[in-house]
Amino acid sequence: MENNLNFQTFLFISSKKLIISVYSETNKKVFEEEFIVTQNDNNLIFDSLDLFLEKNILKIEKKLEKFIKKVYIVLDSYHFFSIEISLKKNSHGNFFNQKNLNNLLYEAKDYCKKTISDRKIIHMIIENYLIDNKIYSFFPKDMTGNNFSLEVKFICLSNNFIKNLEKTLKKYHISLGQVVSANYTYRFLENDDEDIFILTKKIINGHNPNEVMLVEKSQKNQGFFEKFFNFFN
To answer: Of 8, 10, 12, 9, which Cα lies nearest the Cα of 182?
Structure first.
């Protein structure tokens, strides 16, 4: 068997159901299985997930003739915690550029980290840009004004919950690729028939131009904000 280079595996996890789906590079669904969770206790979700993976992982790997090495999680859970931060920079008539924006984003991230010591940032979204109190939904590059403000939203998840996810996946030699908030993903649904996993794939690849891509510190030679979704390319 080879690594699953040509396929992506997604897991939807909620207190009501579990879904595992596998897609080809061309977004063709090649496998899907769903399990209805009968326990009402949210603390038992990892027991259900373990049994669900035990039943399906080998089945998928035999079908694909490839190992599943990584899974992307779409999580619908009360464990998420959101925090909103507003930051202001006086500019005195100067231009607003990438450097101004980066400085404010660093400041917002540091403030959030101090506030959420036991949680990990899952999504960092710029909700609004304000120049002299005028609101813009997208970055107003190279505009001038006396002050520049950002409204930033962080969607965070308990470190303990993430560790339990990783522990459960590790039993099947699978790493955690990325966690995506289901409620955040639902914001971009255009119709009820849209595939939640295809949309999740788009979000991971930068569907929202105002979401900042968080780069892990372990990645060599990459700063925290080196990559932005659709910002400055």
So the answer is: 12
Q: Residue 140: CB partners within 8 Å, gap ≥ 6? A: 96, 129, 131
Q: Structure tokens of 107?
A: 């400041």
Look at residue 93 in the predicted model and tell me its pLDDT: 62
Residues 86 and 152 placed together within one structural domain of the fold: yes
Q: Which domain holds residue 127?
A: 80-156
**Pick the residue with more confidence: 113 or 163?**
163
For residue 3, CA distances in Å to 53, 67, 119, 176 come to 18, 5, 31, 15
Residue 26 DSSP class: T
pTM of the model: 0.84
Q: Over range 37-51, report the average pLDDT.
A: 80
Q: What is the CATH number of the domain that holds 133?
A: 3.30.1490.110
